[in-house]
């Protein structure tokens, strides 16, 4: 539960909600499929048990890794796919040594739910910081920077040659900062959706 709080607690409320739900869904899917694969491996028995476990770990790891590379899934569910791989491997491999695979999955899910509830309580009810507010402030400042850049370009273009010596040259640094801020704005927009 403590590790869940450490891992999913984020600055923005939407980020905490996103990571918490991704962790929960990844754990449920990974634990459920891991239990099925462990039960099938135990039914096979003998040397086939190790072959089934190794094959299932390889196939699920390859499939989840491939799914993580799809752009729409990568943007919102990459963390859930990573937790799926982790939980699936934990449950399947522990099935080789322990008979209580279901108990392990149940305990892991319970501790994750406890950590998730603590994080959501703090993040949404005690001191919420919304990514939408930050995105709004960021876009407002970017429009102001663009307006100043356009105004500076027009002044530079229409200025009289005699006045050229008295004025410093125009700088495009504020315009460049707006152009290079796409990743941060997309991240904030994604978190604001949550």
Describe the structure.
This protein is mainly α and 194 residues long. It has two domains: 2-126, no CATH class; 132-191. 84% of the residues lie in helices and 0% in strands. It has eight helices and no strands. The protein has helices spanning 2-8, 13-44, 46-68, 71-97, 101-126, 131-158, 173-179, 182-193. Helix 6 runs antiparallel to helix 8. The longest helix has 32 residues, at 13-44. The mean pLDDT is 79. It is found in: Membrane. It comes from Citrus maxima (Pomelo).
Summarize the structure.
With 194 residues, this protein is mostly helical.
Keywords:
single chain; 194 residues; mainly alpha; 2 domains; 8 helices; 84% helix; membrane; transport; Aluminum-activated malate transporter; ion transport; ALMT
Oligomer: single chain
Radius of gyration of CA atoms, rounded to a whole number: 26 Å
N- and C-termini, Cα separation: 23 Å
Task: Assign an overall shape.
Answer: elongated
Q: In percent terms, what proportion of residues is strand?
A: under 5%
Structural class: mainly alpha
Tally of individual domains: 2
Q: Given the structure, what is the number of helices?
A: 8
Taken in chain order, the helices and strands follow as: HHHHHHHH
Largest sheet: none
Measured as a percent range, the helix fraction is over 70%
Low-pLDDT segments? none
What's the total number of strands?
0
Mean pLDDT: 79
GO biological process, one term: malate transport
Transmembrane segments: 21-41, 47-67, 79-97, 109-132
Keywords: Ion channel, Ion transport, Membrane, Transmembrane, Transmembrane helix, Transport
Organism: Citrus maxima
